[in-house]
Amino acid sequence: MGHHLYKILLELFRKLDFSSGMAKPLAALAVIATILLVAWLSFLITRYILEHWIIKIVRKTRTEWDDIMVKDKVFNALSHLVPLFILYNSCFFATPQLDKSLAEMAPEAAAGLQADFYFSLGPLLMKLVKVYFVFTFVYIAIRILNAVNHIYETRPYSHHRPIKGYIQLIQIVIFFLAAIIVIAILIGKDPSVLVAGLGAIAAVLMLVFKDTILGFVASIQLSANEMVKLGDWIEMPGHRADGTVLDITLTTVKVQNWDKTITTIPTYALVSESFINWKGMEESEGRRIKRSIFIDMYSIRFCTREMLEQFKKSDILRDYITEKEEEIRKHNKKKQIGEEDVLTGRRQTNIGVFRKYLELYLKSNPRINSKMTFIIRQLQPTEKGLPMEIYVFSKEKVWARYEKLQNDIFDHIFAVIPEFGLKIFQSPAGNDMRTAFQHSQLMPGNDLVGSK
């Protein structure tokens, strides 16, 4: 069609008194403009049909994968095939229909045809169409791969084994091969020759794609060992990351911190460096509560009879106090130790009763998982007092509810400690020092008293 259109336009330009040197280029350019216009219109029509008709069909289906293909514009990419077909079949218009090959012609005639604009336009257009073909193939392949990844992400197991890194690797390979093919088309060389020549610059390529190669290897390790997945809460202080994993790509892992900032970590850093994944806590039956209360050691003493009677009024402690008293009475009687022998006999202490109270109180809390590790213990005394550590697990794992439970527990503990005759250690503040100084002034025998 293009060849006949070219002849018609060439004859038209000649009738308009254009010289042969001007008529041929003008006719060729007019044919090119016509073909491009037809190809562009075919692209618009094809895209319109695919967008509107396909969308109507997709909306009637219950499957989700076709909706994702529409969202990722896979069908839009396919609309490039029709103009590609038109351009490929039309670019032959610039090749003259010869009765015999150039080799069979006289040298002068063959040289004249080769120098003709009309004759040389065909191969140039063919190169451009081939480049457009490569572009179309890459565009369609990338759209399909993106759709495959998004379809895979709708599956429940995709969070454990994401494939986005592998998809990106395939896309990089496609871009790399497409670049080689385009260069080979433009310079008229075999692509295999260019690939063979890449061996000489392999070291340079290794340097350029270092992060990609490391990221690919790391992605395989992360996926195979299930080290991290989308939605995991990870903590990596070296990269100031503490939050939820939003995205895992070939080269980076994106983490949204709890303050809503975004931290980007190299994928290979998750393999080469240590990090904390809180997935184990989220999948377990509880979240750990580990806090210590520092008791002023000067407030620790033996329980008096009045204190024990007061403790018996508590439903939590009543049975324990009774059983413990009987156990101590039998022990002292067996050892023939009188009640007045404080140094030798066994007696209950306020710190011991308090420790047992914490144990019974926490076990009675329905939001504490007593089936997991449950320890109320004293730690090594320090200059800040005697640490009483609470090491239990909460059934509440969601952050807000977990913190609320901790607050409720320790609010109660701080308020109930004085009932056991104990004091919480607190470093002296400015007001404490001022009060102590004022009391020292009022002490009898102080030279400052009555000095005024």
Spatial order of strands in the largest sheet: 4-3-2-1-5
Summarize the amount of helix as a percent range: 55-70%
Shape: rod-shaped
Order of helices and strands: HHHHHHHHHHHEEEEHEHEHHHEEHH
Query: How many discrete structural domains?
Result: 3
**Largest beta-sheet details:** 5 strands, antiparallel
The low-confidence runs, each spanning 5 or more residues with pLDDT under 50, are 96-105, 448-452
In DSSP terms (H or I, runs of 4 or more residues), the helix count works out at: 18
Cα gyration radius (Å): 42 Å
Please identify the oligomeric state. single chain
Beta-strand segment tally? 8
Q: Structural class, from secondary structure content?
A: alpha+beta
Strand content: 5-15%
End-to-end span in angstroms? 122 Å
Which whole number gives the mean pLDDT? 81
Give a short synopsis of this structure.
The protein has 18 helices and 8 strands. With about 450 residues, it is of the alpha+beta class.
Tell me what you see in this structure:
The radius of gyration is 42 Å and the shape is rod-shaped. The chain is an alpha+beta fold. The chain has helices at 2-15, 20-60, 65-71, 74-78, 81-90, 107-114, 117-153, 164-187, 191-197, 202-208, 210-224, 269-272, 279-283, 305-312, 318-334, 350-363, 399-416, 430-442; strands at residues 233-236, 241-248, 252-257, 262-266, 276-277, 287-295, 375-378, 386-394. It has three domains: 2-154, no CATH class; 187-282, SH3 type barrels, CATH 2.30.30; 287-301 and 349-433, Alpha-Beta Plaits. A hairpin with a 4-residue loop joins strand 3 and strand 4. The chain contains 18 helices and eight strands. The strands form two sheets. A five-stranded antiparallel beta sheet has the order 4-3-2-1-5. Strands 6-8-7 form a three-stranded antiparallel beta sheet.
